[in-house]
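lol ok so funny story. i was supposed to be doing the assay writeup but got distracted and ended up predicting the structure for this chain instead. priorities right. anyway since i did it might as well share w the group, maybe its usefull for someone
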Amino acid sequence: MLLWAGLLLLALGFAAFAVDRRATHLFHDRISSRLFHHIRMTTDYAKGARWLILSITLIALSWCARKIWGDISLLVRVFRASLGFLACLAVASGVLHSIKLVVGRRRPRDEIEHQIYGFRLFHYDWQHDSFPSGHAMTIFCVAVVLCGVFPTMAPLWLVLALYLALTRAVLNAHYLSDVFFGAAIGLLASRETILFLFPDLSQPWF
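and the output, tada:
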């Protein structure tokens, strides 16, 4: 299921290139300031730093707890899931930042404020780092790990991840295609990482 979901996200990413600029202006013109504020309040839940700190903290706490109380199933599960997330994030980030380096896409704010749009291949700098979205990648790494740990709630994790990823486009931090490609990288890279390195966290339908 996750493989097909990742391929669907890639297909949506390719399709979104055709509407990226129009969608950016639509979001900018139609989203009210009140709704913009509410969306902005949630978008940072997809930020990598938050999940990185949480996972490292859980690894340290569960490791210490295991030293005291032994290998209790819950503690082992928390340790493995947190470690698995770090591995997923590392693999997905390697792929994502390699693409950023090659593609060099301007942010939507350049389109809105200066009518500048485009790519500068092999010219990575802070003004050309829009494609793909790191936030979208991160939250889909989280979603894949949660799907493995709490499989009965998999639809919820994926829907929440998609919402948080799309907030990046609605807030004009990224184009739609940036979001879909970032999400696809996070999902597919995490799926492969879990299957190969953490099979105990995987599910038969992965």
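Residues 2-201 form one domain. The chain has a mean pLDDT of 93.
back to the writeup now i swear
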